[in-house]
TrEMBL record:
Keyword Transmembrane carried by entry: yes
Superkingdom, natural source: Bacteria
Protein's name according to its UniProt entry: MFS transporter
UniProt source species: Kineococcus endophyticus
Residues spanning the membrane: 12-32, 52-73, 80-99, 105-126, 147-168, 174-200, 221-243, 255-274, 286-303, 309-327, 339-361, 367-388
Entry keywords, A to Z: Membrane, Transmembrane, Transmembrane helix
Main location: membrane
Amino acid sequence: MSSPLVPAAAALRARTAVYAAFVLNGAFMSAWVSRIPSVRDTLGLSNSGMSVLLLALSAGSVIAMPLAGAVVLRIGPARTVFLGSVAVATGLAVVAVSVDGLGLVAPAALGLFVAGAGTASWDVAMNVEGSGVERRLDRSIMSRFHAAWSLGTVLSAGLAVLLLRLGVPTWTHLAGFAVLVVTGTAVATRSFLVGAAPAAGEERPAGSITLGQAWREPRTLVIGVLVLCMAFVEGTANDWLALGIVDGHDATHSVGVAGFTVFVIAMTTGRLSGPWLLETFGRVRALRISAAVAAVGIGVFVLSPNVGVAMAGALLWGLGTALGFPTGMSAAGDQEVNAAVRVSVVSSVGYTAFLAGPPLLGLLADHVGVMTAVTAAAVAAVVGLFVASSAAPHSDGVALGSARRGAAGKLSS
């Protein structure tokens, strides 16, 4: 069943609010990452010790993400995003006090666990809300929401560089972000779409499924595999592209970072142009083209005879990576009544690649080298190409950009 149109002003306000939620989520992650070296040094941890501490953040996310869909169904995306931001802020505050005030690892780990659970719930809820906004505007704009997340990471990283140069302590930086994320989400979620959460005691809508049933749906699970594959392609670049250039071409660290920058710019550009690509070629064809471009880009990167060709490979790699993850989220949210549970399942499957991918590739790289190890990402892209058909519009849904082009297209202009 298609979603009813909402007034233009409300739909556009909701779109802006979702952009804000994605920016803030990305900004939090970048703020934390920018302080990892400071936290390690202040606590006197080795690199392996810091890795164990970072597992607390991942553990919180892994536990919370499969349950987030049920939470969204119970209280709606707006409250879930806000409460997730409160958990993130609380976790950041605990980390700030633990590191600079107490110098203790255990409470810092607890804070990271809480922040991880909060950001996972926030992530699922904002993707559910984003899929709802897509349906109201009849535009495939999920990729632009994810581009906003990247923008948030870049802006936050730039701010972190400035704060570090000014000698601002870790606790001030993290505590400031705690206030920012709560205040920002409190304002943004006021403009989320109305009516997403059921009233108390209300019976489940016709056609709705439980979280357990969503985990048994073949289409949902295959979309999860698609997202997992493309998340692995993206995560491999995040963790190993720069090292691949350094090790494979005996380049300086700055050249390796420049290669990663090419990838990020290309991926962000691809996400900004995502609506045009999806509406021109359709969801499945656009995904297949993207996966093929990513596989070719990785191949060029691995076989490159020099740094210049490797940069070209990184560019294709970034362009091909752009649409997989956000479009998988759109596909999971096709049917509004079940968007929350399906996005939760797909997110849980997909994020496994971000958590398990880096260590697995690291083990492989120890035996065959980084440049050869990243070919695993090309294999994942090819698998993504073959399972892209799972993202075809749900039989009960409406393909975005078709049925309501005349009315809803005006809303997004």
